[in-house]
Protein backbone atom coordinates (compact mmCIF):
# COMPACT_ATOMS: atom_id res chain seq x y z
CA UNK A 1 0.00 0.00 0.00
CA UNK A 2 1.64 3.27 -1.07
CA UNK A 3 0.22 6.49 0.35
CA UNK A 4 1.35 10.07 -0.16
CA UNK A 5 0.91 12.17 2.99
CA UNK A 6 -1.53 15.02 2.44
CA UNK A 7 -2.01 16.09 6.05
CA UNK A 8 -1.48 19.80 5.45
CA UNK A 9 -2.06 21.57 2.13
CA UNK A 10 -1.42 25.30 2.23
CA UNK A 11 -3.08 27.83 -0.08
CA UNK A 12 -1.36 31.00 -1.10
CA UNK A 13 -2.38 33.69 -3.57
CA UNK A 14 -0.49 33.42 -6.86
CA UNK A 15 -0.09 37.19 -6.64
CA UNK A 16 1.96 36.89 -3.43
CA UNK A 17 5.52 36.12 -4.54
CA UNK A 18 6.85 36.30 -0.99
CA UNK A 19 4.38 33.64 0.24
CA UNK A 20 5.22 31.34 -2.70
CA UNK A 21 8.94 31.64 -1.93
CA UNK A 22 8.34 31.08 1.77
CA UNK A 23 6.35 27.92 1.03
CA UNK A 24 9.60 26.25 -0.07
CA UNK A 25 10.70 26.29 3.58
CA UNK A 26 7.45 25.26 5.27
CA UNK A 27 6.66 21.83 6.70
CA UNK A 28 3.42 21.32 4.76
CA UNK A 29 2.75 18.27 2.60
CA UNK A 30 1.28 20.28 -0.26
CA UNK A 31 0.94 23.77 -1.67
CA UNK A 32 -1.93 25.27 -3.66
CA UNK A 33 -0.97 28.35 -5.62
CA UNK A 34 -4.30 30.07 -6.04
CA UNK A 35 -5.35 32.00 -9.12
CA UNK A 36 -9.04 32.13 -8.10
CA UNK A 37 -10.69 33.78 -5.11
CA UNK A 38 -7.53 34.98 -3.31
CA UNK A 39 -6.49 37.01 -6.36
CA UNK A 40 -8.14 40.30 -7.32
CA UNK A 41 -9.17 40.69 -11.00
CA UNK A 42 -6.41 43.23 -11.71
CA UNK A 43 -3.77 40.83 -10.38
CA UNK A 44 -4.94 37.71 -12.26
CA UNK A 45 -2.38 37.93 -15.04
CA UNK A 46 0.56 38.57 -12.71
CA UNK A 47 -0.62 35.75 -10.44
CA UNK A 48 -0.75 33.32 -13.37
CA UNK A 49 2.74 34.31 -14.51
CA UNK A 50 4.16 34.00 -11.00
CA UNK A 51 2.48 30.64 -10.42
CA UNK A 52 3.84 29.24 -13.66
CA UNK A 53 7.34 30.59 -12.97
CA UNK A 54 7.27 29.06 -9.48
CA UNK A 55 6.14 25.61 -10.61
CA UNK A 56 8.55 25.58 -13.54
CA UNK A 57 11.41 26.88 -11.38
CA UNK A 58 10.88 24.17 -8.75
CA UNK A 59 12.60 24.15 -5.38
CA UNK A 60 9.55 22.83 -3.47
CA UNK A 61 11.20 19.53 -2.54
CA UNK A 62 8.78 16.68 -1.90
CA UNK A 63 5.81 18.98 -1.37
CA UNK A 64 2.93 18.21 -3.71
CA UNK A 65 2.28 21.21 -5.96
CA UNK A 66 -1.16 22.33 -7.07
CA UNK A 67 -2.41 25.28 -9.08
CA UNK A 68 -6.00 26.36 -8.49
CA UNK A 69 -7.29 27.84 -11.73
CA UNK A 70 -10.28 30.10 -12.23
CA UNK A 71 -13.49 28.43 -13.34
CA UNK A 72 -13.31 27.41 -16.98
CA UNK A 73 -16.40 29.54 -17.72
CA UNK A 74 -14.70 32.73 -16.47
CA UNK A 75 -12.66 35.09 -18.62
CA UNK A 76 -9.43 33.71 -17.06
CA UNK A 77 -10.23 30.00 -16.91
CA UNK A 78 -9.00 28.79 -20.28
CA UNK A 79 -5.72 30.74 -20.14
CA UNK A 80 -5.14 29.52 -16.59
CA UNK A 81 -5.69 25.91 -17.64
CA UNK A 82 -3.42 26.23 -20.66
CA UNK A 83 -0.66 27.81 -18.58
CA UNK A 84 -1.05 25.25 -15.79
CA UNK A 85 -0.80 22.37 -18.24
CA UNK A 86 2.48 23.81 -19.58
CA UNK A 87 3.91 24.18 -16.07
CA UNK A 88 2.79 20.63 -15.17
CA UNK A 89 2.17 20.74 -11.40
CA UNK A 90 1.16 17.53 -9.63
CA UNK A 91 -2.43 18.70 -9.52
CA UNK A 92 -4.78 21.24 -11.04
CA UNK A 93 -7.55 22.29 -8.68
CA UNK A 94 -10.86 23.16 -10.31
CA UNK A 95 -13.10 25.46 -8.28
CA UNK A 96 -16.87 25.07 -7.91
CA UNK A 97 -17.22 21.79 -9.78
CA UNK A 98 -20.93 21.07 -10.17
CA UNK A 99 -21.14 18.07 -12.49
CA UNK A 100 -19.35 15.00 -13.75
CA UNK A 101 -19.72 16.38 -17.29
CA UNK A 102 -17.44 19.28 -16.43
CA UNK A 103 -14.73 16.84 -15.33
CA UNK A 104 -15.16 14.85 -18.54
CA UNK A 105 -14.92 18.04 -20.59
CA UNK A 106 -11.74 19.14 -18.80
CA UNK A 107 -10.28 15.63 -19.18
CA UNK A 108 -10.85 15.77 -22.94
CA UNK A 109 -9.31 19.21 -23.09
CA UNK A 110 -6.21 18.04 -21.23
CA UNK A 111 -5.90 15.15 -23.66
CA UNK A 112 -6.18 17.55 -26.64
CA UNK A 113 -3.50 19.74 -25.07
CA UNK A 114 -1.19 16.75 -24.67
CA UNK A 115 -1.04 17.33 -20.91
CA UNK A 116 1.53 15.31 -19.00
CA UNK A 117 -0.14 12.15 -17.65
CA UNK A 118 1.18 12.89 -14.17
CA UNK A 119 -1.11 15.93 -13.81
CA UNK A 120 -4.12 14.99 -11.68
CA UNK A 121 -7.40 16.83 -11.28
CA UNK A 122 -8.78 17.88 -7.89
CA UNK A 123 -12.40 19.03 -7.73
CA UNK A 124 -13.50 21.62 -5.21
CA UNK A 125 -16.81 20.74 -3.61
CA UNK A 126 -18.21 24.07 -2.57
CA UNK A 127 -21.67 24.59 -4.00
CA UNK A 128 -25.10 23.21 -3.10
CA UNK A 129 -25.41 21.61 -6.55
CA UNK A 130 -22.13 19.74 -6.00
CA UNK A 131 -23.50 18.38 -2.73
CA UNK A 132 -26.71 17.25 -4.43
CA UNK A 133 -24.70 15.51 -7.15
CA UNK A 134 -21.77 14.37 -5.05
CA UNK A 135 -22.00 10.65 -5.92
CA UNK A 136 -22.24 11.36 -9.63
CA UNK A 137 -19.26 13.75 -9.49
CA UNK A 138 -17.14 11.20 -7.59
CA UNK A 139 -18.11 8.51 -10.09
CA UNK A 140 -16.21 10.50 -12.75
CA UNK A 141 -13.10 8.90 -11.24
CA UNK A 142 -14.13 5.62 -12.94
CA UNK A 143 -13.20 7.23 -16.25
CA UNK A 144 -9.40 7.52 -16.05
CA UNK A 145 -9.44 10.28 -18.67
CA UNK A 146 -10.96 12.65 -16.10
CA UNK A 147 -7.77 12.18 -13.98
CA UNK A 148 -9.90 12.82 -10.91
CA UNK A 149 -7.67 12.26 -7.87
CA UNK A 150 -9.65 13.88 -5.13
CA UNK A 151 -12.08 16.36 -3.65
CA UNK A 152 -11.27 19.51 -1.71
CA UNK A 153 -14.05 20.88 0.42
CA UNK A 154 -14.65 24.63 0.07
CA UNK A 155 -16.44 25.49 3.26
CA UNK A 156 -16.32 29.26 2.77
CA UNK A 157 -18.19 29.05 -0.51
CA UNK A 158 -20.56 26.41 0.82
CA UNK A 159 -21.52 28.67 3.70
CA UNK A 160 -21.88 31.63 1.36
CA UNK A 161 -24.04 29.73 -1.13
CA UNK A 162 -26.28 28.18 1.50
CA UNK A 163 -26.80 31.54 3.30
CA UNK A 164 -25.51 29.81 6.42
CA UNK A 165 -22.92 30.83 8.96
CA UNK A 166 -19.50 29.63 9.98
CA UNK A 167 -19.95 28.32 13.52
CA UNK A 168 -17.72 26.43 15.91
CA UNK A 169 -18.19 22.71 15.54
CA UNK A 170 -19.56 23.15 11.98
CA UNK A 171 -22.95 21.69 12.95
CA UNK A 172 -24.83 22.96 9.87
CA UNK A 173 -22.15 21.57 7.54
CA UNK A 174 -21.85 18.09 9.03
CA UNK A 175 -24.30 16.31 6.69
CA UNK A 176 -22.48 17.75 3.65
CA UNK A 177 -19.09 16.87 5.09
CA UNK A 178 -20.25 13.29 5.65
CA UNK A 179 -21.68 13.04 2.11
CA UNK A 180 -18.45 14.33 0.59
CA UNK A 181 -16.26 11.88 2.48
CA UNK A 182 -18.61 8.97 1.70
CA UNK A 183 -18.64 9.77 -2.03
CA UNK A 184 -14.85 10.05 -2.14
CA UNK A 185 -14.40 6.73 -0.37
CA UNK A 186 -17.01 5.02 -2.54
CA UNK A 187 -14.98 5.87 -5.64
CA UNK A 188 -11.56 5.51 -4.05
CA UNK A 189 -10.40 9.10 -4.37
CA UNK A 190 -8.75 11.39 -1.83
CA UNK A 191 -10.59 14.03 0.16
CA UNK A 192 -9.21 17.15 1.87
CA UNK A 193 -11.06 19.23 4.44
CA UNK A 194 -11.79 22.95 4.05
CA UNK A 195 -9.92 25.85 5.65
CA UNK A 196 -10.15 27.35 9.14
CA UNK A 197 -10.30 31.14 8.81
CA UNK A 198 -9.47 32.22 12.37
CA UNK A 199 -5.68 32.20 12.15
CA UNK A 200 -5.12 33.17 15.81
CA UNK A 201 -7.42 30.44 17.22
CA UNK A 202 -5.12 27.44 17.57
CA UNK A 203 -7.49 25.53 19.86
CA UNK A 204 -10.34 25.95 17.39
CA UNK A 205 -8.09 24.82 14.55
CA UNK A 206 -7.02 21.74 16.51
CA UNK A 207 -10.65 20.84 17.26
CA UNK A 208 -11.58 21.21 13.59
CA UNK A 209 -8.56 19.15 12.47
CA UNK A 210 -9.58 16.40 14.90
CA UNK A 211 -13.14 16.52 13.66
CA UNK A 212 -12.02 16.26 10.04
CA UNK A 213 -9.61 13.43 10.80
CA UNK A 214 -12.34 11.52 12.63
CA UNK A 215 -14.68 11.97 9.64
CA UNK A 216 -12.00 10.32 7.48
CA UNK A 217 -10.42 13.20 5.58
CA UNK A 218 -6.87 12.58 4.31
CA UNK A 219 -5.81 16.03 5.43
CA UNK A 220 -6.82 19.66 5.65
CA UNK A 221 -6.35 22.73 3.51
CA UNK A 222 -4.80 25.68 5.33
CA UNK A 223 -4.41 29.41 4.82
CA UNK A 224 -1.48 30.38 7.05
CA UNK A 225 1.93 28.86 7.91
CA UNK A 226 1.10 28.99 11.64
CA UNK A 227 -1.59 26.31 11.06
CA UNK A 228 0.78 23.66 9.67
CA UNK A 229 2.22 22.28 12.90
CA UNK A 230 -1.15 21.66 14.55
CA UNK A 231 -2.58 20.10 11.42
CA UNK A 232 0.41 17.80 10.89
CA UNK A 233 0.26 16.70 14.52
CA UNK A 234 -3.44 15.83 14.38
CA UNK A 235 -3.24 14.02 11.04
CA UNK A 236 -0.11 12.00 11.95
CA UNK A 237 -0.88 8.66 13.58
CA UNK A 238 0.38 8.74 17.19
CA UNK A 239 3.34 6.45 18.05
CA UNK A 240 1.19 4.32 20.39
CA UNK A 241 -1.43 3.88 17.65
CA UNK A 242 1.24 2.80 15.18
CA UNK A 243 2.72 0.36 17.71
CA UNK A 244 -0.73 -1.16 18.29
CA UNK A 245 -1.31 -1.37 14.53
CA UNK A 246 1.98 -3.22 14.05
CA UNK A 247 0.95 -5.66 16.79
CA UNK A 248 -2.37 -6.34 15.04
CA UNK A 249 -0.64 -6.99 11.71
CA UNK A 250 1.94 -9.26 13.34
CA UNK A 251 -0.76 -11.23 15.17
CA UNK A 252 -2.66 -12.01 11.96
CA UNK A 253 0.63 -12.94 10.26
CA UNK A 254 1.27 -15.71 12.81
CA UNK A 255 0.88 -19.19 11.25
CA UNK A 256 -1.72 -20.22 13.87
CA UNK A 257 -3.90 -17.21 12.91
CA UNK A 258 -3.49 -17.55 9.16
CA UNK A 259 -7.01 -18.91 8.63
CA UNK A 260 -8.76 -16.99 11.39
CA UNK A 261 -11.14 -14.09 10.78
CA UNK A 262 -11.17 -12.93 14.38
CA UNK A 263 -8.71 -13.18 17.27
CA UNK A 264 -8.25 -11.77 20.76
CA UNK A 265 -5.35 -9.38 21.38
CA UNK A 266 -4.76 -8.06 24.91
CA UNK A 267 -8.38 -8.64 25.85
CA UNK A 268 -9.91 -7.08 22.74
CA UNK A 269 -11.68 -8.66 19.80
CA UNK A 270 -9.75 -7.93 16.60
CA UNK A 271 -11.05 -8.84 13.15
CA UNK A 272 -9.26 -8.99 9.82
CA UNK A 273 -10.75 -5.64 8.87
CA UNK A 274 -8.84 -4.16 11.82
CA UNK A 275 -5.67 -5.59 10.31
CA UNK A 276 -6.54 -3.81 7.05
CA UNK A 277 -7.03 -0.56 8.97
CA UNK A 278 -3.75 -1.19 10.79
CA UNK A 279 -1.90 -1.69 7.49
CA UNK A 280 -3.25 1.62 6.19
CA UNK A 281 -2.17 3.42 9.35
CA UNK A 282 1.33 1.94 9.20
CA UNK A 283 1.62 2.93 5.52
CA UNK A 284 0.69 6.50 6.39
CA UNK A 285 3.17 6.59 9.29
CA UNK A 286 5.93 5.14 7.10
CA UNK A 287 5.16 7.62 4.31
CA UNK A 288 5.34 10.52 6.78
CA UNK A 289 8.65 9.40 8.24
CA UNK A 290 10.23 8.78 4.85
CA UNK A 291 9.02 11.98 3.22
CA UNK A 292 11.57 14.38 1.88
CA UNK A 293 10.35 17.97 2.42
C1 LIG B 1 -4.68 35.51 5.43
C2 LIG B 1 -3.45 36.25 4.94
C3 LIG B 1 -3.88 37.37 4.00
C4 LIG B 1 -2.74 36.86 6.15
O1 LIG B 1 -1.64 37.57 5.68
P1 LIG B 1 -0.65 38.35 6.66
O2 LIG B 1 -1.41 39.01 7.78
O3 LIG B 1 0.20 39.26 5.82
O4 LIG B 1 0.23 37.18 7.25
P2 LIG B 1 1.41 37.27 8.28
O5 LIG B 1 1.92 38.66 8.41
O6 LIG B 1 0.97 36.61 9.53
O7 LIG B 1 2.51 36.37 7.59
C5 LIG B 1 3.62 35.89 8.31
C6 LIG B 1 4.61 35.27 7.38
O8 LIG B 1 4.00 34.15 6.72
C7 LIG B 1 3.92 34.35 5.31
N1 LIG B 1 2.61 33.85 4.87
C8 LIG B 1 1.41 34.26 5.24
N2 LIG B 1 0.44 33.52 4.68
C9 LIG B 1 1.09 32.62 3.90
C10 LIG B 1 0.64 31.58 3.06
N3 LIG B 1 -0.68 31.33 2.89
N4 LIG B 1 1.57 30.84 2.44
C11 LIG B 1 2.90 31.08 2.60
N5 LIG B 1 3.39 32.05 3.39
C12 LIG B 1 2.48 32.81 4.02
C13 LIG B 1 4.09 35.84 5.10
O9 LIG B 1 4.64 36.09 3.84
C14 LIG B 1 5.04 36.18 6.24
O10 LIG B 1 6.33 35.73 5.90
P3 LIG B 1 7.63 36.62 6.13
O11 LIG B 1 7.62 37.58 4.99
O12 LIG B 1 8.77 35.68 6.11
O13 LIG B 1 7.45 37.30 7.46
C15 LIG B 1 -2.46 35.29 4.25
O14 LIG B 1 -2.04 34.33 5.18
C16 LIG B 1 -3.02 34.61 3.01
O15 LIG B 1 -3.06 35.21 1.95
N6 LIG B 1 -3.44 33.32 3.11
C17 LIG B 1 -3.88 32.53 2.01
C18 LIG B 1 -5.22 33.00 1.47
C19 LIG B 1 -5.68 32.15 0.31
O16 LIG B 1 -4.91 31.66 -0.48
N7 LIG B 1 -7.03 31.95 0.18
C20 LIG B 1 -7.61 31.13 -0.83
C21 LIG B 1 -8.10 29.82 -0.32
S1 LIG B 1 -9.20 29.84 1.04
C22 LIG B 1 -10.73 29.33 0.39
O17 LIG B 1 -11.52 30.17 0.22
C23 LIG B 1 -10.96 27.87 0.12
C24 LIG B 1 -12.24 27.54 -0.57
O18 LIG B 1 -12.27 28.01 -1.87
C25 LIG B 1 -13.50 27.89 0.17
O19 LIG B 1 -14.43 28.38 -0.47
O20 LIG B 1 -13.57 27.65 1.38
MG1 LIG C 1 -14.04 28.65 -2.62
TrEMBL record:
Binding site for substrate: 68, 126
UniProt binding sites for Mg(2+): 126, 157
Enzyme class: hydrolase
Gene3D superfamilies reported for this sequence: Phosphoenolpyruvate-binding domains
Keywords for this protein: Hydrolase, Magnesium, Metal-binding
Cofactor requirement: Mg(2+)
Record-linked InterPro entries: Aldolase/citrate-lyase_domain (IPR005000), Citrate_lyase_beta/mcl1/mcl2 (IPR011206), Pyrv/PenolPyrv_kinase-like_dom (IPR015813), Pyrv_kinase-like_dom_sf (IPR040442)
One Pfam family of this chain: HpcH_HpaI
GO molecular function per UniProt: hydrolase activity; magnesium ion binding
EC number: 3.1.2.-
Family designation: Belongs to the HpcH/HpaI aldolase family.
Protein name, entry field: (3S)-malyl-CoA thioesterase
Organism annotation: Variibacter gotjawalensis
The gene coding this protein: mcl2_1
Amino acid sequence: MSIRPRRSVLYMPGSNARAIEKAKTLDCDGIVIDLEDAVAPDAKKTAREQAIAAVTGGGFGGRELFIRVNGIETQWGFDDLTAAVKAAPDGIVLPKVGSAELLEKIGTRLLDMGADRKIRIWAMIETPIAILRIGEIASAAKDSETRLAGFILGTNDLVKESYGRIVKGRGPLLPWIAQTVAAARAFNIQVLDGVYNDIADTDGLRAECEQGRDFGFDGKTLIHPSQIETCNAVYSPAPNEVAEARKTIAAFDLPENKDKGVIRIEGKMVERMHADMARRMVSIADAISSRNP
